[in-house]
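HOLO CASE FILE
Compound: 6-chloroguanine
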Amino acid sequence: MRIDILTVLPELLQSPFDHSIMKRAREKGHLEVHVHQLRKWAVNEYGMVDDYQYGGGAGMVMMCEPLVRAIEELSATVQYDEIIYLTPDGHKLDQRTANALSLKGNLLMICGHYKGIDERVREHFVTKEISIGDYVLSGGELAAAVLVDAIGRLLPGVLNDETSALFDSFQDDLLAPPVYTRPEDFRGWKVPDVLMSGDHRKIDDWRYEQAVKRTEGRRPDLLK
Ligand code: 6GU
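Model generated. Tokens follow.
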């Protein structure tokens, strides 16, 4: 998969994909991330990409021209399956959306800033609008990093048996069960006996029960 990201703050997206699973995904050739400085397509030599909003009101709006020039230039060499605008008023990101996007080939992500982007870019170019939750961030960059990570780890070949996504929280609409590692007894706090039993059938049953119990207690909305 190839992901291109348009942003006025490329610095914010320097390191998120240089570590751990995202690093491995890129090294193995499953994921390519290209971060572009939107000011490269600015309307003047001062790097202008935003302007006052029509109708008045505080806050700048990202202009059509730089965004559209960037989208069109990039689209000339890459066929995008989705052009995604990261915005707090978008569709709230969930595992289902991450799973679906991981099946695509090329994605273009637009990070909004200030009051957002001119509505005409949303109408005519953006194919998906995504929010990462009901709170406001200063810009779309951290949201884009979250989205790339959520998608990137699902790409075939990225995870191995040990890191398998199959048992993640949310993958089956259940939260993940509790996990333990050595020592068996830490300050008198013991690992549940069943996990030490070696009976894999019983262990699977226990984990499922725990997952259901945890989901009922913390996220009953997922069980509907
Ligand atoms: Cl995608 N952008 C911004 N600025 N804030 C957010 C968000 C996105 N998702 C949640 N809050």
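CASE NOTES: The chain has a mean pLDDT of 96. Residues 86-88, 112, 131-133, 135-137, 139-140, 143 surround 6-chloroguanine (CB under 6 Å).
CLOSED: yes
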